[in-house]
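ok so for the tutorial part 2 we go from a plain amino acid sequence to predicted structure tokens. step 1 is just haveing the sequence, like this:
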Amino acid sequence: MGMADDLLAEHGFLVLADISGFTAFVTGTELEHGAEITGVLLESVMRRLAPPLEIQELEGDAVFAIGADRMIADGSALPTVLTGAFVAFKEAQRRLAGDPSCACGACRSVPDLDLKVIVHHGRFVRQVVGGRARVAGPDVILAHRLLKNPVGAAAYLLLTESALERAGVDPFTSGLRRHLVSYPYLGDVPCFVADPESLGQRPFTGASVRAA
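step 2 — the prediction. this is what the tokens look like for a chain of 212 residues:
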């Protein structure tokens, strides 16, 4: 039996929710309160993502979640989930920033944090390495590479074209901006970006986009 015989490829959403400003925050503030604050913010996002997504891993300042097609038969449910994650982050941030019980550097710096969310749809395999479950594959690598992009904003939602198609989102009626990013070995990746503040102001749904 070959090593790959028990690894079955799946299709699904790959989602990374990342706190912008995390490094400056944790290195410039009190350790205990800084860790507590980022923990509360990450948990607020996780509660909105899962279910229907599965939390795969916490990666420092980011939540990595997956949504296999067999579990999310209707991809059009994802936009509401993503919008909810941004809302939950902002609600938790306002609550923490408005707490008058502490004036430490960490608590004063809460408003400096933002959230960016990366969404890709592709193939992956599940495996166990050293007793720990993980997902792997080129599309998993791509989703993580997309955290480094030329968007230039502290807070945004970025979806690849394949994610848009699966979610049934029309980028034009939803006010998304098109970007083309490129990575070694992964090639050109058409992406669409939204300002989180605008997600609730126009319909984040619609007919599927087709490749240009």
